Amino acid sequence: MKGFSKILRKTDTKKRLSVPIRALKSLPPFKLGSHAVEFEATDEKGETWAFQCSTRKRGPYRKPVLTRGWVAFVKSKKLQIGDKVRFVKYKNRATATISYKVRAEKEIRIFGVIFGYAPI
């Protein structure tokens, strides 16, 4: 099981999710010569979401982002700046199939201090 989580910033809630470069191993592999890969992830309610992860075509820094499907997910979950999203890659040992989960968590503040995160 591999995964990553990220606390959302303004761009993450409005346009695309900037994926940490180290998190690429938690997402599907890119085909040789490709700069984009599509995959599906299931949320905590069992709903399937289709996403596209893409990287820059040139340059030394790949800068991965989730684009297609991301804004719809954010709107559906009513995510805001400061909320957290978590992607997890699972491998079924019996069948060797790979699946992905996506979890959204709302920021909990008490008297202006971040107390933690609660699953949506």
From TrEMBL:
Keyword Ion transport: no
Pfam family, one: B3
Domain of life: Eukaryota
One GO cellular component term noted in the UniProt record for this chain: nucleus
Domain TF-B3: from-to ranges: 43-106
Residue ranges the record marks as coiled coil: none
Primary location group: nucleus
Protein name: AUXIN RESPONSE FACTOR 4-RELATED
